């Protein structure tokens, strides 16, 4: 529950990176949270005479930033980490789909708990999950994921995925792991109507999210786009992740992924796509023209040897770009701070070298950029009066960071910084690196048990 609107929390004496349009920063400043909104942010001490101050936090030695926003993930993969570690994307999918196709509601709930807990304790205040595996008779998977997010206390977007192109149709998933076209569309619409909240301070939203060009039919893409726009929600899928996908699209559709997506209604300011590694100039221009967003997942792209996305070129062209963890079967750490650092470092291996990204650009990708991609830049992603109180206080005076003068540089270039406090909707969910909302040790034990149960079932065929 969000705190009462007349209750104030004051954070003082901390460095602040607002990530607003002017990149405003304060070497020592204050934040006032009133209920679930940011009431004021500025240099020096908080205004005098504030009423109903229920808590004051001395932020000396800390950096306050907007909460991190994760724009692409697959929570269910938490219980299949560490497998197929030397595979490219297509071989990795072929190796793991037979296991994933045996998940059930209990496994999905436990995996969502683990994924969410790891992100939240590391500074994520808004998460998303692209869930697209719905084995027959597996239970209420969407409901279990949403329940785990509510219990953890993070703001959440469920991208209700789907697949209808199985092995018999030339796709990668096993035949028993996909839905019918009609079934997928009906279940997606039901999920949106049951769970999507369009309000300013919504904690749960739903997007329409067929999985990828090589696991869904053209008709599912086309009708999925029509469904999303009729219901007024966003669209999400995978795009241009590997050279194999590029080849697949040319062979099957006679065009590259971007042209194929445009032909099915899948470019627009209400769309964001994961990865977008193999983009030509014309593809980037199309995304910029239509304001189609990108979820950049540097660790997963490296893990699966997919390549280096042209993030600097996308940003210069005006493409909205956020960061994503991606599923933890291709990013075993499962937390977003790693993506701040890896986005900066990996992109410096590309054509732009040291000019590719700066520390502040990386932080913007992980905060305001993510809010843009999820369609929530008016509510979250920067520390500004009137925005929702999603704030992280990073401890920067420990051995890991204390000798780095600039706290933003320390946060992005340095080791993962401890989270002293994380607030979502004005409610504190992390204190001194530990979750306040769920028992981390119990979640760890449950995820281990569910991973072992899934492994036994998969081994039995």
UniProtKB/TrEMBL annotation:
What Gene3D superfamilies does the annotation carry?
A: Metal-dependent hydrolases, Urease, subunit C, domain 1
* Keyword terms of this UniProt record: Hydrolase
This entry's Gene Ontology molecular function terms read: 8-oxoguanine deaminase activity
Q: Which Pfam families match?
A: Amidohydro_1
On the tree of life, the source organism's domain of life is Bacteria
InterPro entries (alphabetical): Amidohydro-rel (IPR006680), Metal-dep_hydrolase_composite (IPR011059), Metal_Hydrolase (IPR032466), MTA/SAH_deaminase (IPR050287)
- Annotated Amidohydrolase-related domain residues: 64-427
Q: What is its EC number?
A: 3.5.4.32
Enzyme class, top EC level, equals hydrolase
- Protein name (record): 8-oxoguanine deaminase
Its source organism is Streptomyces musisoli
